[in-house]
């Protein structure tokens, strides 16, 4: 089943501590960022206070904007570029800080000094009320604790889903096992302490009274080492051109000038390019900025 | 047929007790379905007629094939006695074949085997799988609604709904009016199971019988319909459900959402004034929303109809149509719809199905979901331990 990537409920602290890239199965599969606390994220849902967006670079017409989202546990960069016009507009809208809900893709950068940091490329965001923010924090805290508990159980060699816990989402079990393997010395006790300020926000303590704690220290074991990306082969280029050709056709025939992702996959499928392969090629084209998905399921050339 | 001398006298058996390789048998059963065909022998091109269909004697239903049947006089509802039919198996199911050795003749209702209800095994709804028959279930009618369908050239009324017992909820389709009412407890004998969009469904036709029972230990319709939400990952895992409630946040829209044009004949969406099925048509405008609902464990698509879309959007179809002159770009309308629904926390109940693209939920109800902040804060505080209080 090629389902949709789940929007993991996480806090900034967990993103700050996430340093490990992950590739899904299959060649050029979806990319993920693995956290030490049981999240294997391609997409996340966040809430917090967003700063005024600032342009990145010195272009006269900036094509990339960045803002800072702060929640009770830390902060993370939220970005949007011209290839996500709606998200960019929403990111730039208003000045001064405001409370927002953001869904977006997780990106992991390695700086020149080797430091990894995470940012979120916004797909959609919207201003929310305080009640909506508190409801989000409630859900995110509940799920984050569920995931950390799960990692703890696996660390103790216990069953992932004992009777008293009930149903545990299978993707969470996969993520927790991988977190444990890749971050063997992550401090989960400290992480639980780092989450405590969220509780204050849920019961309605004003956000200004809360100061995010200092960044956590997480020891990382790289296993396996990240492999350098290689240039595409001629066959891969051929697949790309087939995909782009059909993307143009589907987009042209559609009412809204976007190519429906499902329809595109069905068309190229009929040409012998299987869904898994096509998804992989699409992911790469999206990563390279050739194709974009401004609305979920709707593709077009960037 | 005079020389059809079997090695021993045929033994009368019920259809449920038919076994491959047993001695010669004799059965009495009612014809549920019969269809005549002619096949051409590949060896000499000769034609041979056959009648095939379904037989039931109240204990089981089996497929039968009757080679060189009488030209007429075999109808649905007839009771037949067959002596020395051949017992075969096809894809794990027992079948009967009436060949030259078989003597088939009319029989009376009274000759059908007497089946006491207690002889029919009782099944829980969670144990129903396709194919299954010859069982009885005791369940609550959670919901029932009349629907008119076209079968061939015939208009028929089907009664669709939901049944629940302590273990599961399944959909049903009754092709006969059993006067089912929601809330009543019933014992159903003689129904069969068929898979519908990946989930087992109970089908009641002429063979089925329904008896009202006390059913004090059965869940009420309200408990079934107000059941707490399940994790979307669970639906992704199990493949769907006749009635499921989920709660999540709208994180996106899938196309087509917003203003769509539908074929007046089949309601499919029309592209460039052309229906895939019916060619050039004048599309009827409609609103819909394919909401991506995500609960942090998984994501599914909710197909919202016009009324639900209008309610969530706060914009009616009429408003969209009259606004088209000022704002002709459908993408702008879709943006406006996304802005209205993005981030909304919804509880949705309906039937869930799974395909290669994930789980789709056909909603019965779509309601805003509330989070009890105080109760959650207490619970989370306890989980976080020595922090507050």
Protein described:
The complex is a heterodimer of chains A (about 300) and B (about 400). Chain A contains eight helices and 13 strands. Chain A has about 300 residues and is α+β, with helices and mostly antiparallel strands. Chain A has two domains: about 200 residues, OB fold (Dihydrolipoamide Acetyltransferase, E2P) (Beta Barrel); about 70 residues, Winged helix-like DNA-binding domain superfamily/Winged helix DNA-binding domain (Arc Repressor Mutant, subunit A, Orthogonal Bundle), CATH 1.10.10. A five-stranded mixed beta barrel of chain A has the order 5-7-8-10-9. In chain A, strands 2-3-4 form a three-stranded antiparallel beta sheet. In chain A, a hairpin with a 2-residue loop joins β7 and β8. Chain B folds into three domains: about 100 residues, Nucleic acid-binding proteins (OB fold (Dihydrolipoamide Acetyltransferase, E2P)), CATH 2.40.50.140; about 110 residues, Nucleic acid-binding proteins (OB fold (Dihydrolipoamide Acetyltransferase, E2P)), CATH 2.40.50.140; about 140 residues, OB fold (Dihydrolipoamide Acetyltransferase, E2P). Helix content of chain B is about 15%, strand content about 45%. Chain B contains six helices and 23 strands. In chain B, strands 1, 2, 3, 4, 5, 6, 7 and 8 form an eight-stranded mixed beta sheet that branches. The longest helix of chain B is centred in the C-terminal third of the chain and has 12 residues. The radius of gyration of chain B is 28 Å and the shape is globular. The interface between A and B is large, with 57 and 49 residues.
CATH homologous superfamily descriptor of the largest domain in chain A = Nucleic acid-binding proteins
Q: Separation of termini of chain A?
A: 28 Å
Poorly predicted residue ranges of chain B:
none
Strand-and-helix sequence of chain A, N→C?
EHEEEEEEEHEEHHHHEHHEE
Kindly provide the radius of gyration of chain B, computed on alpha-carbon positions and rounded to a whole number of angstroms. Answer: 28 Å
What is the radius of gyration of chain A?
A: 20 Å
Number of strands of chain A: 13
């Amino acid at each position: 089943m090629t389902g949709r990537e789940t929007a993991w409920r996480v806090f900034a602290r967990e993103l700050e501590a996430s340093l490990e890239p992950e590739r899904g199965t299959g060649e050029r599969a979806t990319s993920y960022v693995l956290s030490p606390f049981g999240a294997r994220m391609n997409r996340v849902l966040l809430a917090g206070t967003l700063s005024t967006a600032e342009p990145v670079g010195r272009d006269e017409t900036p094509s990339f904007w960045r803002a800072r989202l702060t929640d009770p546990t830390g902060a993370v960069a939220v970005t949007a570029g011209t290839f996500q016009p709606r998200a960019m507009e929403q990111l730039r809208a208003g000045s001064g800080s405001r409370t927002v809900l953001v869904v977006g893709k997780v990106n992991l950068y390695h700086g020149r000094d080797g430091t990894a940091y995470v940012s979120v490329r916004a797909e959609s965001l919207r201003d929310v009320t305080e009640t909506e923010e508190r409801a989000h924090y409630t859900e995110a805290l509940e799920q984050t604790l569920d995931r950390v508990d799960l990692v703890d159980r696996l660390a103790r060699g216990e069953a992932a889903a004992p009777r008293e816990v009930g149903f545990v989402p299978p993707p969470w079990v996969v993520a927790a096992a991988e977190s444990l393997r890749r971050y063997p010395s992550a401090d989960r006790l400290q992480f639980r302490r780092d989450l405590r300020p969220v509780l204050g926000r849920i019961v309605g303590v004003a956000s200004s009274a809360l100061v995010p704690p200092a960044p956590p220290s997480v020891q990382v074991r790289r296993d396996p080492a990240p492999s350098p990306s290689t240039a595409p082969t001629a066959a891969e280029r051929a697949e790309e051109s087939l995909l782009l050709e059909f993307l143009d056709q589907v987009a042209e025939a559609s009412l809204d000038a976007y190519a429906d992702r499902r329809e595109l996959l069905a068309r190229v499928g009929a040409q012998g390019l299987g869904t898994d392969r096509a998804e992989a090629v699409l992911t790469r084209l999206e990563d390279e900025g050739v194709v974009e998905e401004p609305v979920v399921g709707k593709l077009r050339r960037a | 047929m005079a020389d059809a001398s079997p090695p021993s006298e045929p033994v009368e058996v019920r259809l449920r007790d038919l076994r491959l390789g047993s001695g010669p048998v004799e059965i009495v059963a009612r014809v549920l379905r019969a269809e005549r065909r002619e096949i051409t022998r590949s060896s000499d091109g000769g034609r041979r007629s056959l009648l095939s269909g379904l037989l039931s004697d109240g204990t089981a239903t089996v497929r039968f094939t009757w080679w060189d049947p009488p030209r007429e006089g075999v109808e649905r509802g007839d009771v037949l006695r067959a002596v020395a039919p051949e017992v075969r198996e096809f894809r794990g199911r027992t079948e009967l074949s009436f060949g030259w050795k078989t003597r088939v003749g009319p029989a009376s209702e009274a000759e059908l085997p007497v089946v006491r209800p207690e002889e029919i095994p009782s099944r829980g709804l969670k144990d129903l799988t396709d194919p299954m028959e010859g069982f009885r279930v005791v369940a609550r009618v959670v919901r029932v609604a009349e629907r008119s369908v076209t079968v061939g050239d015939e208009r028929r009324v089907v009664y669709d709904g939901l049944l629940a017992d302590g273990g599961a909820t399944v959909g049903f389709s009754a092709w006969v009016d059993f006067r089912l009412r929601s809330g009543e407890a019933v014992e159903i004998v003689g129904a069969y199971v068929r898979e519908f969009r990946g989930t087992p469904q109970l089908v009641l036709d002429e063979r089925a019988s329904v008896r009202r029972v006390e059913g004090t230990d059965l869940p009420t319709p309200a408990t079934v319909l107000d059941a707490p939400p399940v994790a979307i990952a669970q639906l992704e895992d199990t493949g769907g459900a006749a009635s499921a409630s989920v709660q999540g946040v709208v994180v996106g829209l899938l196309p087509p959402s917003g203003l769509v044009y539908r074929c007046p004949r089949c309601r499919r969406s029309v592209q460039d004034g052309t229906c895939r099925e019916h060619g050039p048509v004048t599309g009827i405008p409609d609103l819909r929303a394919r909401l991506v609902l995500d609960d942090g464990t998984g994501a599914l698509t909710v197909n919202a109809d016009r009324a639900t879309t209008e309610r969530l959007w706060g914009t009616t179809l009429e408003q969209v149509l009259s606004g088209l002159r000022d704002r002709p770009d459908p993408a702008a309308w879709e943006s406006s719809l996304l802005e209205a629904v993005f981030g909304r926390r919804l509880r949705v109940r309906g039937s869930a199905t799974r395909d290669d693209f994930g789980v789709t939920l056909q909603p019965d109800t779509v309601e805003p979901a509330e989070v009890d902040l105080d109760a959650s804060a207490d619970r989370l505080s306890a989980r976080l331990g020595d922090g507050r209080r």
